[in-house]
User: What shape does this take?
Amino acid sequence: MGEVWLPNVDGVERDSSVIENCDNYGNIIGVICVGGIVGEVSGHYYYGSDLLKENKSIIRNCNNYGNIYRNKNFENLSNYYRAIFKYFGGIAGYGSYIENCTNQGNIYGFESIHPKDSISYIGGITGVAWQVTDCKNNNKLNVDSRAKNTDDICGYILRSDKRG
Assistant: This one.
């Protein structure tokens, strides 16, 4: 299967929605918010008609079989992205609530990094999420020791009561 060169597969999803029963078999190359199913599902608090509420989007029952690659072709990148690589995961780069998902793909490009590069939030399932439940990453991450917030499942859990 060919490769897709996009920072986000499904773009940014900001509503309280459900992404479910999706499989990805393609390889993904990107810079920020890169995942096999979706680049970013915002689990942030957001403003809407004077109310502040939590986004509770869910990714469930999804599988990634494709590989995730950090884009090393710096000549085509803007100066902002040239040394910042964040939010990489087998399912989502930046997730919200992720349930019963499996990553079969590898995440490449972080084995050796330039000292000036900023590498952070890399996980086998997601780089960042509010909660990850019953998910499996079948490939171990191989990440340079200078990278921050990395884990075989989730690089960083946003809710302190869900860390463990």
Remarks:
- The chain has a mean pLDDT of 77.
- The longest strand covers residues 84-89.
- The two ends are 38 Å apart (CA to CA).
- Residues 90 and 125 are 5 Å apart (CA to CA).
